[in-house]
């Protein structure tokens, strides 16, 4: 058996593909196999990320929501303590994919803390809905909660936001936020812990 597939190309010309039944069955089998592999890989990755993000802060001796003293901990030490995904963002300045973090669209009231050290960073009253795909705030909870640093990576000049206590990367700040500050603190969800009111 032979299959003929015709596609109209320009109104005058036709493209004709001739596929025999054996080739059609092989192509169909390969497509199904690729779909199964893609789905399985995505599920495994999601489960792995959920596991990494659920490591309790109690395994981190530097984590405290009451101690505000400056921390001086080496990246080698943080690497032993932090989950892989948190270490990659907080200590290596990686960025989580947009619209994937657990807080990007949350409207629950409460306080956001640094996931590395427990420093209070933002309150939900300063959070606003933005279309960027990351949790966005217009101001920190205290002026010394965060520190600003020039970031010239990726061929552009941006302002990096780091934790005022442990110097971990949180995200970046932009001048397109709402009143009263007109600032948008664009944060990585993995860098944040949340305590609902």
Summarize the structure in short.
By secondary structure, the protein is α+β, with helices and mostly antiparallel strands.
Largest sheet: 6 strands, antiparallel
**How big is the Rg?**
24 Å
**Annotated CATH architecture of the largest domain:** Beta Complex
CATH superfamily assignment of the largest domain? Peptide methionine sulfoxide reductase
Name the helix and strand elements from N-terminus to C-terminus, one letter apiece: EEHHHEEEEEEEEE
The shape is globular
Number of contiguous helices: 3
Word description of this protein:
The protein has 197 residues and is an alpha+beta fold. Helices cover 24% and strands 27% of the residues. Strands 5-6-10-9-8-7 form a 6-stranded antiparallel beta sheet, with no helix packed on it. A 3-stranded antiparallel beta sheet has the order 4-3-11, with no helix packed on it. It has a two-stranded antiparallel sheet with strand order 1-2. The protein is globular.
